[in-house]
Amino acid sequence: MPLDLQPGQTFLFIGDSITDCGRRDDADGVGHGYVRIIRDYLYARHLTQAPRVINVGISGNKVTDLAKRWKQDVIDHQPDVLSIMIGINDVWHGLNRENPSGVPIEQFVDLYHVILRQVQGASPKTRIVLCQPSVIEPPGPAEGNQVLQPYVRAVNELKREFGAAALVPLHTVFVNARKQRPDIDWTPDGVHPSSAGHMLIARTWLAETGLL
C-alpha cells in the first residue's frame, strides 16, 4: 500500500548500525547511509511535500534495546511513518562462541509484538514500514544466513498480522544482488552495507512504499 505524502509529515527510522550510519557525527543527524539517501530523494522528488526525517538508529542495537527506548525514541515523536529495521544483531551477536548475546527467535517475536502493539495503541495514525533483516554473509560467519531465516519469516508474518503499510524485502534483495552481481561488494564485512548496499536499501524502501 503506497504511502501518501502530505506537507508537514514526520518519517522516523529506527534500527541498528545500518540505520545509524554515523548520525551522531552528522550535522543533519541523519547519518550517511540509506536514511540520508531516502531523505535527499524525497527532498528532490517531492519538494513541498517532503517529510521531516528523523533517524534514531543506534549501532549494536537488538530488538531488546528498541523495546527499552521505544517510548522516548518513537512514541513521543508520534511519527506519521515509522520504519523499523532490526534483527541482524539479534542473530549475529549470538554467533559469538565465547560470549553469545543474541536474542532467541521466540523473544524476538514477542518483543516485536509488544513494540508494534504500543505504536498502534499510542499513535494509531502512524503507518508502519517493516524491513527484513538484510544478510549475514561471508566474510562473516557462513551459518549466519541460515540462522537468520526464522527472523526474516517472522518479520514477513508481522507485516501481515499488523497490517503494516509496506514490507521491505531486504534479505531477498541482497541475496539476489549478490547472486547476480558477485563482483560488487555489497557488504564488505558480511553485514554492514557499502555505499552500493545503502543505495540498494534506499531504492528498495522507496519502491516498496510507492515513493520512488
Q: Tell me what the CATH architecture is.
A: 3-Layer(aba) Sandwich
Low-confidence stretches: none
CATH H-level homologous superfamily name: SGNH hydrolase
The computed structural class is alpha/beta
Approximately how much helix is present in the residues?
40-55%
Fraction of residues in β-strands: 5-15%
Mean pLDDT: 93
Number of H/I helices: 8
The tally of structural domains comes to: 1
Question: What is the CATH topology?
Answer: Rossmann fold
- Biggest sheet descriptor: 5 strands, parallel
Question: What is this entry, summarized?
Answer:
By secondary structure, this protein is of the alpha/beta class. It contains eight helices and five strands; from the N terminus they run E-H-H-E-H-E-H-H-E-H-E-H-H.
Characterization of this structure:
- The chain is α/β, with parallel strands linked by helices and 212 residues long.
- It has a single domain (10-208), classed as SGNH hydrolase (Rossmann fold, 3-Layer(aba) Sandwich).
- The chain is built from 8 helices and 5 strands, in the order E-H-H-E-H-E-H-H-E-H-E-H-H.
- A 5-stranded parallel β-sheet has the order 2-1-3-4-5, with helices on both faces.
- Strand 4 (127-131), helix 6 and strand 5 (166-168) form a beta-alpha-beta unit.
- Helix 2 packs across helix 8, helix 3 (63-73) runs parallel beside helix 5 and helix 5 (105-122) packs parallel to helix 6.
- The two termini are 13 Å apart.
